[in-house]
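FYI - complex with adenosine-5'-diphosphate, inputs then prediction.
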Amino acid sequence: MEQMMIDQTENFVKNKLKDESSGHDWYHIHRVRNLAENIAVKEGADHFVCVMAALLHDIADEKIAGSEEKGLEEVKLWLESISVEDHYITHIMSIISTMSFKGGNQSEMTSIEGKVVQDADRLDAIGAIGIGRTFAYSGAKGQLMYDPEIPVREKMTQEQYRNEKSTAVNHFYEKLLKLKHGMNTSYAKKLADDRHLFLERFLDQFFGEWEGEK
Ligand code: ADP
Ligand code: NI
């Protein structure tokens, strides 16, 4: 029964995201789901809730749904339409709304399942995949990969994020390098440490090559 709901939800999400180019493409969801499953096993979190929340976590993003409210309503209607039990709906909705509200990625998760899915989403923003996503996103927004004249701001408001010039490499300092400190679960912390080292190694090589020294 639960497997059927997962399969149906997978198709629903795949269909909605098939033409997304804002960094929320289907394969981001696919990776977050796989990570969430692996972390859930290690942390003893509920499998069904983690997978469903991972699959649906970006549907309510304003970049996709137009507004968070509209997106959340759509997710709720979907869960009702496939007859997910009420207590599961409440739990899944609470995870997704915490993740999708503005700056929500910084919000505290109260349940272990929420912590797992939030960790999985943050992990997909670092490591080799995180680097790839950052350059892809920057390219799509017309940013340079690096410009020594654009200062790095370690603290940015949402407003600055949206309106001011940045670069792919600046984004490492503005966000990626901070993510490992935000991990909730101990298994995700372990994965984040490796991915973080990979970011540092990448930057070291990048600047070496930039100066023609490597
Ligand atoms: P999510 O909600 O899945 O964490 P975001 O919408 O914050 O994703 O970003 C999607 C991807 O694009 C992430 O990998 C993120 O690091 C990257 N990204 C977001 N903002 C920027 C930016 N200003 N410059 C470069 N990459 C960015
Ligand atoms: Ni995401």
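The domain at 2-210 is CATH 1.10.3210.50 (Hypothetical protein af1432). The pocket of nickel (II) ion (ligand 2) is lined by residues 28, 32, 57-58, 121 (CB under 6 Å).
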